[in-house]
Batch of 4 targets.
Target 1
Amino acid sequence: SQAQTENLIIRRFRHEDIPKILELFSVSFGSQESEEWFLWKYERSPWSTAGYVAFDKDTAVAFYGGVKLKFSFRGKTLWAYQFCDVMTHPAYRGKFSGKRPVIVRLGEMFYAENRMDFAFGFPSPRHARLQSLMLGGEGHRFINVYKRDFFEFGFLSGVLRVKEVWDCLENNSFAELIRHRRYEGSLTFAKDVDYLKWRYLERPFRSYSLLVFKYFSRIRGAVVYKVEDGCMDIMELFYGDDGDIQGIIRSVERYAFKWLKLKGIRLWAHYQDLISKCLDSSGYRREDGIPVAFKPVNPECRVNGDLFYGNFLYSMGDYDAS
């Protein structure tokens, strides 16, 4: 649909809008992205996307985007949108379309025209407040970020054999590993091999690596990571048995510090996640990270703010900009 208010035209974005949206991105965030990045994100994602743009004549002045994602909760499949690339041109912040800010008009159109059970994202604190005040959001919390600086170590017991390779994605045991459910009642992003390929192998201008951990011939765990500022940023940490977590963490430390000569390790883990409990007892320090925010949409799915914040087992790779 399309709406015109005052001098603004508000509608779902079209392919020919991409250069103007990228100009808006540069002005809004002070960094640049490419057309290839936009096409990867908004035209090639596994479960579709949506995006709405406001134009003042031929200038894009606001954008509200979202990526559709599959979740699992108590044996049921739920569909959510991660809102992202929410931006307003600096000259138009505080200006209204009708009686509401233009970015709110875009958000209203986004939620009216796309079916979903809930929405979430990793917004700026300013956008998180706006989402709560004017778009039905239920507040926000801060991500748990765990950090470990380089340390000298001797012999480590329980270290697993590690291999850095992407070609195991077609392995049935790897597919089973990433489907592992953490605990009854956890709200988990239902990742599959196609998602991992899109997210980490096909993303332009960024490089990620996959570590696979084995004990004899059996895959016990896997980690997707990237290196930034001399640190290993762990995007995903998959494990099959709870008892394997400690060995995976020790194996990651040895690989990062002994073989890659990095200065630190960083990862996200929800306080309910067993990974978090292992990190708390292994010398990692915990800090508040960026906000995570939730918006209810379909009351029949029974996911409310308390349930989402208490049970969404996020990882760093869930953040679209990581």
Target 2
Amino acid sequence: LSSAAVGATSVSVVATGMSEAQLAAVHDAAGTADAGDGLAKIAANGITGDLAISTAGLTEVEINGLLGKASTTATVTVDAVGMSSDELQDLHDNITKIDSITNATVTNTEEAAEIGSILSKATDATVTATGMTTAKLTAVAGNIGNVAAGGLGTTLTLTSAQSVDEISALMGTATTDNNVAVVATGMSALQLNAVAAEIAEVGAITGALDGLTSGVTASDIATLFGQYTGTTAAVLATGMTSAQLTAIDATKVAANGVTGTFTVASDVASAQINAVLAQTAAGATVTVNAAGMDAAQKGVVEDNIAKVDTLNGLTLASGEDATEIAALLSSGAVGAG
């Protein structure tokens, strides 16, 4: 290739079985490393056969040059172990020429499009997700099947910007336990259910946790509160069942943080009735169905009677003291007749 007798762009290369030393010679001929003296004599799409690329014996310039001359009919395999950001960029730029990539590691340094293209051809890739933007995590989620089990081995931060499907994908087998940080502010009920389904992988939930509605199951409400480190949760309790109301950790709810229209019944324990009503906003519409309530439950209803709009099913007995009876019967929540 260094001979003047060989004209420019006149040479075809069948790369099958070539060592990296031979491939470097194809690129540089007898010239200085990375000079491309040999590459200039290779025809466009002139490298065919099985082309194996790695950094073991090829420089970044040589990798880019060889891929640029590879035919789309060639079978190109890349061992990406130890590749730099520039080398990964070369893979992205020539991704249509590449058939498979092994030992790839992508990080926040790579752009979203680059992450997506590399992972699309990868097998058992590793992702260092620390600091990744929403777009980059979306690219990872879209190719999660090509990430190794446990391959998301660094801290992964999820927010409401990721879709339900993306949250489920990112928190699947690719993620290790206690390794996900969830900022729950603005997350919908469906997103919160997706987080709860993989709670073992969550190290902590922070933010407002303001998406708690009847659309989050009772068990998921309890699970989410278990990992929630804040005290500013907001609960839209409209339509919540007794089980859902029972699952609320009122110590982690903001003052006046329980809103909506809901009913409290005898299957909610007295301490929980007290805790939930204490955090209920004045604008909420609260019905208490007192049928079957014991003295303790009726006592905490009386303690929070200002929060109750409608009180029905009330039966008074000798277990209630005079003050409690007076307070309950004088409340506007108790209808005539």
Target 3
Amino acid sequence: YFSIGATILNLNYEYPIESEAKTAFFGKEGLLGTIYSMYNSENFSFAFEASQDAKHNFGFKAGSIFKIEDVELSFHYRNFSSEFRSPFGTIFGETYAPSNETGFYTGVKWYVNPKLILSTYFDVWKTHTKTYTLPIRQKGIELFSEANFLFDSDFELLARIKYENKTDAINIDKLKRTFQKGKYTLRTELKYQIDELTRLRMRNEECLITYENLKANEIGMLFFCDFQRKIFSNFDINGRLTYFSTDSYDSAIWQYEASPTGYSVSYALYGQGIRAFIGFEYALFNILELSAKYTVVSKNFVESIGSGLDEIQGNSKQQLFLQIDIRF
């Protein structure tokens, strides 16, 4: 299978846009163009895209996947000039915005046997110029390895290690110091299908942040246990209890939650405390679906939770989400 195509987009606004954001169009009008192609076969895939924005800045990305028996190899290259602006575009990179970045990614997935899968990837990147947050060019690397072991159809173990190193800055004695921040993350997870209706999962995650001896290293840890249970064919319940402890927001551990239906968010858990939720989903005659979620967050050694307009006094916070979906 082979395809090739091109897209031209003419933008014309009533007033000129002068935003410095790398995701925003700059100016009043202009022509954006891109050409792209894709090739797919049973054991090989390749795709590329070359683009020009309204100010004649260029961007390019290309990727491929090879399948060799039980091994999959992937490669991805991207290069977008510092002034490139694509208000509707995204990329697979250090940031989602196609601007001021060049990098190369390679990954390997090995199906060792029916019970064991090993995965790893390496990504190296840098910016062409200084960034909005730093007065110098940024650079970084990311190394990831994961093992999935299936003891049997009901019992799965996951182990993951990840290392990140990228340019950052901190203020020391009123001076901004730039350095390469290191982050080591270790995750272990156990999934157990108790029966056809009930699933249990436990996860432990720990991280270490290093600052090139400019300040003390930080550590963070998180442990949670969650469950899913189908009470009836149209009624599911789920819940989770999480304990977290980190030195600061810098060593926060992010937790993803995907309920109620269609609602997903990642929370940065930092400080010391617990986060718990319980929820349900109920469907009626394939027409109406009711979902709800009740959450509790409690932190130690704080007088308030949140910041800005979301800040509340006290060390605990409760929220109730109710949602009704109607299909016509």
Target 4
Amino acid sequence: LEQGGASLRIPRQLSFNKVFGDPLPFRRKKLRIVALINGVPYVNAIRETRNEDVVIAPPIAPPGQMPVDTDGAGVDQDSIETRSDDIQTAASIGRSALGSPRLDGGVGFDGVSLHPVMQRMTESFSKLAEALPFTQLEAEDVVEAVDRVGEMISLFGASMLPVRTSVTDNVVKIRKQLAALKKADEKADTRLAFLILADVATKHKGKKEGSVCLSALWMKRCMDFQLLFLKRLIDGVDSYAAAKEALDAKLVPWQGWLLRTTCRTGMKMVPTRAKIIAGLLKGGGGGVDPDIAEAAVMDSMRRLLAGFSVVLLEWGHFVEEHDLNFPEKA
């Protein structure tokens, strides 16, 4: 640590094999770093062989952006599974909420003020639901909605940092590809489905780190996690149990040991159900009766699922139709 603990230096000559040990000493290691620095998610993997010292110090990146992993050793996410049974059930819950009064300026059930992220998510996914089928959705509209989910996850503290980091990281990767595409051709087709299939049609690009295809698949997997987590909260399940079930069902089957261990360790710090409810209220819900607070948040979640679950269901159909459930683990 340097500058009174404000920065972290990893010397070029530091041997990961010697420090961490390895039953296969000839194997080159990568040191995976997942952190939250000044409120900005940071993820990177430092190689065993380095040409210079690595210094991590704030500011890491402007808010809403991820640091660029120049050696391609960041979060390797190249698989996805679509579990349409849970999504279909959630879609039913969501559709049942379509007849409920819309949120107005973040005010929900019984006049309780909700955190702005609830309104932003509901509006983003309602917009997507109205624009379905999935093949017609603009990439930026999908990315914007997914970014809102990252905002919600950030309210749960460090417990879901790996998931939040993955969401933010892949949002930035797709936006980077979009910017390059528009720079080359202002009239280019920027629908997400078109960009995904264009990657698949290019040899080896579909599974390439940083591609729209791979980034979108990982975003979808994180959305599946968040959907199941919210659905279980609506069902009245304890927050830790809900997070563990969502993690085991939607992420663990496609994670390598390191990423799986990181996520499971984080989930042990998931806030209590009461704290999550309070976090989703404007100003932390101070002075609001707990029963009324829970009713307001659950009502808001049902409204959110009206669009969220339907969009994920259609997205899942697209993934299945084009055989994009890559089996490789991250």
